[in-house]
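Fill in residues.
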């Protein structure tokens, strides 16, 4: 076989040394743009090339194969010119020597995972979302001699199970590396510009988003203790659907949200949108959300021209009411629900739920009644969607 050249940044050399079986855990955590997923995928393909391995690729929530790292691995098969060795199937990747990649969700498929024998390596991607219960079930399931568990994640809260398990109290026989975009020699200039802009505007947010520093203050999260991610199917008798849209400006995204309420719970079912969408792209995005033309879409009234254009395109779009203190009243309404349940396919909603927060006093560390701008586009759309349900209160909030 022709020698295979796999470009590997120095920070990821631990994926090859020591050899397989030399450690139990190989963990990489940090901010965006560090190429964690690429490097883990490449290393696993290389190991599977040299010997037959059974590799389980897992994440907490996987509603479909599209939610997995299947696409990342398939892309790397092509980039490394391994198409003659690996066969990419719809729900698996198979090597000519018997290597097999499987894809499972920990929350939904844990029974199948427990019954799966002979796993050599388990790669847990987006591990910041993995619960303590899932870890306690998964780890003893990967029990083959010399088996390893590989972990990649962007930290969310310091109190999260994954951060505590691997960073605060690193287990024996583990290699743990913090990585960032500075370790990625292929980091694109457009993202470098975004990282630099955030550093100037909000150094704390930059340290989290790009530097991989966890939010230490859970009480600064607007929705702290209120939200969770869970697969669900709306049932007969649920109230809704309610649709809300927040229009993008410059680098801010346009977001459309479809949600329901039931038994004092709020369910976020679908989302769509993007940055700098023209009218045609906006129409396609809205049409990707089921029933978006059948129900009223309450949208940010600051863009009446966009509302008028979407009406011409056949959407029942109207401006959502605003009043002095409407943001505060909307937050109070969101926090009045027993739970806010976010479907795993709503990626932006999940990210913003983690990042939407109040400012803190840099001298006293006290949480202030001021919102940090950004990471609120989904939740603005949700507030607009639920406007008829939100009660007006006294105006005391400052944004």
């Amino acid at each position: 076989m022709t020698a295979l050249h796999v470009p590997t940044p120095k920070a990821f050399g631990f994926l090859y040394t020591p050899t397989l079986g030399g450690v139990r855990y190989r963990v990489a955590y940090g901010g965006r743009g560090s190429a964690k997923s690429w490097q883990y995928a490449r290393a696993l393909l290389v190991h599977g090339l040299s010997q037959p391995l059974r590799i389980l690729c897992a994440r907490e929530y996987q509603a479909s194969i599209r939610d997995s790292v299947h696409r990342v691995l398939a892309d790397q098969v092509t980039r490394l010119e391994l198409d003659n060795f690996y066969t990419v199937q719809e729900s698996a990747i198979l090597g000519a020597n018997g290597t097999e990649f499987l894809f499972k969700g920990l929350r939904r498929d844990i029974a199948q995972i427990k019954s799966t024998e002979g796993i050599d390596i388990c790669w847990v991607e987006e591990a910041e979302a993995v619960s303590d219960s899932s870890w306690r079930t998964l780890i003893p399931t990967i029990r083959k001699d010399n088996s390893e568990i590989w972990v990649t994640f962007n930290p969310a809260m310091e109190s999260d199970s994954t951060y505590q398990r691997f960073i605060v109290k690193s287990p024996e026989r583990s290699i743990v590396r913090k990585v960032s975009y500075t370790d990625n020699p292929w980091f694109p200039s457009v993202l470098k510009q975004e990282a630099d802009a955030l550093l100037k505007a909000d150094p704390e947010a930059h340290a989290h988003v790009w530097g991989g520093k966890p939010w230490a203050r859970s009480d600064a999260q607007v929705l702290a203790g209120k939200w969770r991610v869970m697969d669900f199917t709306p049932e007969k008798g649920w109230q809704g659907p309610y649709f809300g849209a927040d229009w993008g400006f410059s680098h801010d995204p346009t977001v459309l949200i479809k949600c329901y309420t039931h038994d004092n719970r709020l369910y976020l079912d679908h989302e769509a949108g993007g940055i700098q969408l023209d009218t045609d792209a906006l129409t396609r995005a809205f049409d990707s959300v089921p029933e978006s033309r059948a129900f009223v879409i309450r949208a940010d009234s600051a863009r009446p021209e966009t509302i008028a254009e979407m009406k011409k395109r056949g959407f029942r779009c109207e401006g959502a009411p605003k009043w002095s203190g409407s943001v505060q009243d909307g937050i109070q309404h969101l926090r009045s629900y027993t739970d806010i349940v976010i479907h795993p396919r709503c990626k932006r909603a999940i990210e913003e739920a983690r990042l939407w927060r109040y400012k803190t006093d840099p001298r006293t560390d006290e949480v202030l009644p001021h919102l940090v701008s950004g990471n609120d586009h989904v939740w603005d759309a949700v507030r607009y969607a639920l406007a008829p349900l939100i009660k007006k209160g006294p105006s005391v909030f400052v944004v």
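The two ends are 62 Å apart (CA to CA).
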